[in-house]
Amino acid sequence: MTAMSSRTNRAVWADARFLIGLALVVASIAGVWWVVAAARTTTPVAVADTTLLPGTPIDESDVRWVEVALGEAEGSYLTALPKDSTITRPLAAGELIPAGAVIETARSTVTTVVITSTVDVASTVTVGSSVEVWMSPVKDRGYDDAQVLIETATVAAIRESTGLASGGTVTLELIVDRNQVAALLDAQASKAALWVVPLGGVR
Predict the structure, then answer these.
(1) Assigned CATH class of 43-106
(2) Which of 51, 56, 54, 50 is nearest to 176 (CA)?
(3) CA atoms of 129 and 199, how far apart (whole Å)
(4) Is 48 within 8 Å of 81 (Cβ atoms)?
(5) Contact 57, 29 (CB under 8 A)
(6) Mind listing the pLDDT tens digit for each residue in 11-62?
(7) Angle subtended at Cα 36 by Cα 34 and Cα 40, rounded to the nearest 5 degrees
(8) Helix or strand or coil: residue 64?
(9) How buried is residue 175: exposed, middle or buried, by Cβ count under 10 Å (0-12/13-18/19+)?
(10) Domain boundaries, the chain
């Protein structure tokens, strides 16, 4: 009787281990299937069709849509284009548009200001470049020490004057926050020397 009971217990335990092992195999297969399925799941994401600058109103003509497997980045990129929206930072052509780079146009705080550079502009400065604006205040018959006036601005346009009267000066249209406009206008009114220093390309 004892031997029969022992064999029965071993059989039950063997069956239990078999069922547990089978459950683990099924769970493993299901997990692999879920990972593969998730990797194959794509979402339409907006891509900048051209270089987009801060303060630029954006609509369907400015973007194209590509299928992207976002995975854990779901929600980080623009999957629908809001009405009356504006870009908040420079975006290069072909760049996926982050959800945080678009706001309602009414909330935009940037504007454009034109300055004339006192010195040559670096060849790396192009439309869309992020730059610092430096200034040297007028002092006696020269200029005082240079200082940073605007830490970050975006170049919207570059115009080079070639006439004799212009002396080959370079004029830049800069995108800045509205609260920086007064400082730029004051610097220009005081005849301070102004120039830009590149922080990099489109970022």
Answers:
(1) alpha beta
(2) 54
(3) 7
(4) no
(5) no
(6) 555 566 666 666 676 667 665 555 555 556 788 899 999 999 999 999 999 9
(7) 115
(8) strand
(9) buried
(10) 43-106, 109-200
Tokens found for residue 9: 């217990």
Q: Please name the residue that has the structure tokens 């999957």.
A: 79
Residue that has been written with the tokens 């009114």 in this structure:
189
pTM value is 0.70
In the block, residue with structure tokens 């005849």: 191
* Sign, CA torsion 17/20/24/30: positive
**Residue 46: C-alpha distances to residues 97, 113, 167, 175 (Å):** 6, 29, 44, 23
Over residues 67-81, the pLDDT tens digits come to 888 777 778 899 998
Contact 191, 200 (CB under 8 A): no
Residue corresponding to tokens 């000066």 = 169
- Three-state secondary-structure class, residue 54: coil
Copy the structure tokens of residue 173: 């249209």
> Per-residue confidence at 7, pLDDT binned at 50, 70, 90?
low
Residue 105 burial (C-beta neighbours within 10 Å; 0-12, 13-18, 19+): middle
Neighbouring-strand partners of residue 176: 111
